[in-house]
Design brief:
The structure holds two protein chains of two kinds.
Chain A lengths: L6 E4 L23 E6 L5 H15 L4 E6 L9 H10 L2 E5 L3
Parallel strand pairs in A: 2-3, 2-4
Chain B lengths: L9 E4 L2 H10 L13 H10 L7 E5 L4 E4 H11 L6 H11 L6 H6 L5 E7 L2 H4 L14 H16 L23 E3 L10 H4 L8 E7 L3 E4 L6 H15 L6 E5 L1 H10 L3 H11 L2 E2 H5 L5 H7 L10 E2 L8 E5 L7 E6 L10 E4 L5
Parallel strand pairs in B: 4-5, 8-11
Antiparallel strand pairs in B: 2-3, 4-6, 6-13, 7-12, 8-12, 9-10
Helix pairs in contact in B: 2-3, 3-4, 3-7, 4-7, 9-11
């Protein structure tokens, strides 16, 4: 209990599980890697991803690109959709645009 | 009163002033001083709503973040709520966490929507929630603190803050501090909002909208529904084509003309839907967001001559009567993303005693 000279007040926050997520391990090289391009469906996001892929393909010996669009910028991608995607690529780039 | 078991971490401070500064330092405030959430104050809020501390009021779907009654009550006390406001806060949390409201998107987006709470039914009078003079303005504790409680919950429980958190609004607007109002049911020319949305007139409810800043306008000459709605139409043009939902804030003076003419809400929507139709090419040339034009069909590639309305359907217009008796000032409140991916949600406020 707080003594007479103190006021005990309560923490209004919670720790979100999202805050404890870790970044995926970075690949040592892009050589031979399948590059996944995940658009959030916003205007220009696919153009941005394509432009980045062109740079990567020009500089590194990447194997292939696989581009998908999650179809709704305002909501998370379906877990099954992401699971299928992750099985088909070695490296993923995400982009949004406006 | 039974003593609830509260599981939140606690902090010991010397006095209220130190509590206020501590909450600023920890990033737990909205920029204004808070009321220190003591155990006793939080317990009183929970008791007033007959809620157990671990009762789950809602789960924000995108992050899976759980909003318990205890955390909601702590933030309500911080906002300055009286204990008897807690049932409204609890119902509002239920409403904002409904999947169709899309809470995560509307609170993190660059578009900067706020959460507008509209209270209907007898509780508005009991709690003195202002629906009249300066209804969106300051000076009324229930309006100011219930709206603020919801914002503090979004900031503190969901982590949606603009300093180092998830809120990325380009501009935001003052409604993000607090935005709670009651419908002016004494001035209604038709049934109240909650009845239109399927509730009994004797119920008390809260309806939440993902509102952008309102467009206020004066129409002091027209004294017919058509004339007043023509003025509304000019503001709908500014929002863009194809709103799925848009709030029409109708002041009592304007509402009186609808009453004299015997109009209902359906007529309002149908009239606005028709008169705001214009060729797609005109919308496309008016600087509207490309996404909005595509969504509405205004960029269908058919030459641009097909007529596109400011409203997706006649039912897209949501008339609500709010404001003081004097003055012919009404307003239009656009929804986040034209209401395409967020929907207003109404929840009953549970009577406690």
């Amino acid at each position: 209990m707080a003594d007479q000279n103190t006021l005990r007040v309560l923490d209004p926050t919670v720790t979100l599980s999202i805050a404890t997520e870790r970044m995926a391990e970075r690949p040592g090289s892009l050589a031979g890697k399948r590059i996944g391009l995940l658009s959030n469906d916003k205007l220009n996001s696919e153009a941005l991803l394509d432009a980045i892929y062109d740079v990567l393909a020009d500089r590194f010996d990447v194997k292939a690109s696989h581009r998908i669009n999650k179809g709704d910028a305002s909501r998370p991608a379906d877990p099954d959709f992401l699971s299928d995607f992750s099985n088909e690529v070695d490296v993923a780039l995400l982009a949004n645009g406006d | 009163m039974t003593t609830p078991h509260l599981s939140s971490n606690s902090i010991d401070v010397r006095d209220a002033f130190e509590a206020i500064e501590t909450y600023f330092d920890r990033g737990w405030s909205d920029g204004l001083p808070i009321v220190p959430p003591t155990f006793e104050a939080v317990a009183a809020a929970l008791e007033a709503a007959n809620l157990a501390p671990d009762a789950i009021l809602g789960v924000e779907p995108t992050k899976g973040a759980v909003i318990t009654a205890e955390k909601a009550a702590i933030n309500a006390v911080m906002a300055g709520c009286r204990p008897e406001y807690m049932p409204v806060v609890a119902a509002a949390v239920e409403a904002i966490t409904a999947d169709e409201f899309n809470l995560h998107a509307i609170t993190v987006s660059t578009m900067g929507a706020a959460i507008l709470l509209v209270v209907n039914g007898p509780i508005a009078k009991t709690l003195e929630i202002n629906s009249g003079v300066s209804a969106f303005g300051p000076g009324h504790r229930a309006n100011a603190t219930i709206g603020r409680a919801i914002r503090l919950i979004v900031m503190n429980v969901l982590g949606t803050r603009s300093d180092d958190g998830l809120d990325k609004a380009t501009l935001g607007h003052p409604g993000k501090f607090s935005w709670c109002v009651a419908e002016n049911e004494a001035s209604l020319p038709w049934e109240p909002l909650h009845v239109t949305r399927g509730h009994d007139i004797s119920e008390s409810t809260v309806t939440v909208f993902a509102g952008l800043s309102g467009l206020q306008f004066g129409e002091h000459v027209a004294n017919t529904p058509e004339g007043i709605l023509d003025a509304f139409a000019q503001r709908l043009y500014a929002i863009g084509p194809g709103s799925h939902e848009v709030v029409l804030v109708i002041c009592p003076e304007h509402a009186e003309h609808f009453a004299h003419a015997g109009w209902n809400k359906g007529q309002v929507g149908r009239y606005l839907y028709e008169i705001t139709r214009k060729p797609a090419s005109e919308w496309a040339n008016a600087g509207m967001p490309v996404g909005a034009r595509q969504e509405s069909g205004a960029e269908s590639g058919s030459g641009g001559e097909e007529l596109v309305s400011a409203l997706r359907t006649p039912e897209s217009a949501v008339p609500i009567v709010i404001g003081g008796a004097g003055g012919a000032w009404s307003s239009v409140i656009p929804m986040w993303g034209l209401g395409a991916k967020t929907k207003a949600v109404t929840r009953a406020i549970k009577a406690v005693r």
